[in-house]
Design a protein that fits this description.
This protein has about 375 residues and is α/β, with parallel strands linked by helices. It folds into 2 domains: about 240 residues, Rossmann fold, CATH 3.40.50.11970; about 120 residues, no CATH class. Helix content is about 40%, strand content about 20%. The protein has a 9-stranded mixed β-sheet, with helices on both faces. Strands 11-12-14 form a 3-stranded antiparallel β-sheet. The protein has a two-stranded antiparallel sheet with strand order 6-7. The longest helix has 17 residues.
Length: about 375
Amino acid sequence: MKRAMSMSVVGILLALCLFFAGCLPNNPSLPSSASDWTVMVFMNGDNDLAQDAWQDFNSMEMVGSTDRVNIVVQMDTPRLGTYRYLVTQDTSTNEITSPVLESLGNVDMGNYNALIDFVRFCVERYPAKQYALILWNHGGGFRGKDISFDFSSGNAITIPQLGYALSQIRNLIGKKVDLLGMDACLMAMVEVAYEVRDYADLLVASEEYVPGEGWDYVAFLSSLVMTPSLRPEQLARVIVDTYVDSYTTIEVTQSVVDLEALTPLVQSIDALSQAVLADTLTPPRLYLEVGDRALYFGDYDFVDLGDLARLWQSWPTIRSPLVKERTTQVANALAQAVVYERNNAGKTLGGLSIYFPYQHYDSRYDALAFASSTSWDDMLKHLFRYR
């Protein structure tokens, strides 16, 4: 999950500045026509990331909205409750001056209905030709409670709930979300991407942990405001570049996934799973032992799919010709689905991780659409009989 930063005196002062500088709704005038972009940031700071939430919000204010780019934030923090803002430009680094659009009281940001309602508000008030939706908070990949951890309620949005919420959001917008971003840890997983494949065009997320300060909002929003005609893939690449370039001492990764290309990838993974299940030439334990060598991210159970396929393809004692063929197909499909990947550690990554448990299989995995649509879960259960 996002590496937490405990609430400091600076964070408290920023919170007080926000409360006194912008807490009264003043309903700025609505745009007369659709803008080029509306960037919707669902910022759950009701947890140990509250200080980082204030800092990132302040970074957004260094850029601010324009007549062609709307930046709308719903932010929840401990004690102060939940507010909706239109982010406007200021040069202050120690106070928030953006107008409050709505004061919502105590909202459970770990409830997927809160996400749906936020997007409904944005679409009604700030229509645009293109929409970016950013989920800002802790992320856990696949872990039952998967993203948007609300410490007040103890809830988080699960991956199946996220898929449902985005299905409703697609209906609200009348089309897929142009860019779905997850400023949260460990969310660049095949399983996550598959759950949302029908509801967004592009996914921007990280295989690795994400530092508490997250994305470089000044840099990528500046690029968008300067060139509001950016296409979704161009904006996605800017997000990746500015994020990776902003860290020099912490290892980070970021990927852009073309969700339209996810179905062929998942079909190739399913075919690989069936080939492993049918392999009578290779001891099942060997697949586990070789798989455990694959690059992993923060969680031992999440391995880079590209590295796993490469290891299985090249390992001399994995003898099935069909498995070798299917791993090549997975690698090729992965290269089509991940249109851009960068990391600052010089690693060769596929850009998407996959669940490959280190010690035991988690039965909650069965609830995912990916598990229902493929034999990957059956393969894992089969292999783990030999652990």
